[in-house]
Write a structure and sequence with these properties.
Number of helices: 3
Strand content: 15-25%
Largest sheet: 5 strands, antiparallel
Strand order of the largest sheet: 2-1-5-4-3
Radius of gyration: 15 Å
Helix content: 25-40%
Structural class: alpha+beta
Order of helices and strands: EEHEEEHH
Number of strands: 5
């Protein structure tokens, strides 16, 4: 089950969408900052402990949720929060970035890199894509 999606540029959340969350955040801004801090901390941690000295992670799993992460060369960070049984969403995040975000946000006239995303066509294409993912509503069976 897919709960929500974030796009960050540097440390700022520029887009948020939720679908199957059973509990809405009391303070969305505080939650966005918490996730930004978590991403920054985990990236720094992986850089420190990596034998190659390079940061790198693509998901964090807890008993209650899984955070899927993809960072672009241009500093955008795409994040899905899902049920912990969902397999890696990184290929989907890459596709969202290359096929939807670049086309409907970055290439849009008047968009300033790092600015808030307010594109109705992006939202429409994102929703269509996410709803087509097989585990959008139903968590996958164990072992998937």
């Amino acid at each position: 089950m897919i709960y929500c999606f974030y796009v960050y540029h540097r440390q700022f959340c520029v887009y948020y969408e939720d679908w199957n969350r059973t509990r809405k955040p009391k303070d969305a801004s505080a939650e966005e900052k918490l996730i930004s801090g978590l991403l920054f901390g985990i990236k720094g941690f992986t850089q420190k402990v990596s034998p190659m000295g390079q940061p790198g992670f693509n998901c964090i799993t807890t008993p209650l949720f899984k955070l899927h992460y993809y960072e672009t060369m241009s500093g955008y960070k795409l994040v899905f929060m899902t049920d912990p049984t969902v397999q890696s969403m990184v290929p989907h995040l890459q596709r969202i970035y290359s096929d939807i975000f670049l086309e409907h946000v970055i290439k849009a006239p008047g968009y300033t890199p790092g600015g808030q995303v307010a594109s109705p066509s992006f939202q429409k294409e994102l929703n269509s894509f996410v709803r087509s993912v097989p585990w959008f509503v139903t968590p996958p069976a164990c072992g998937n």
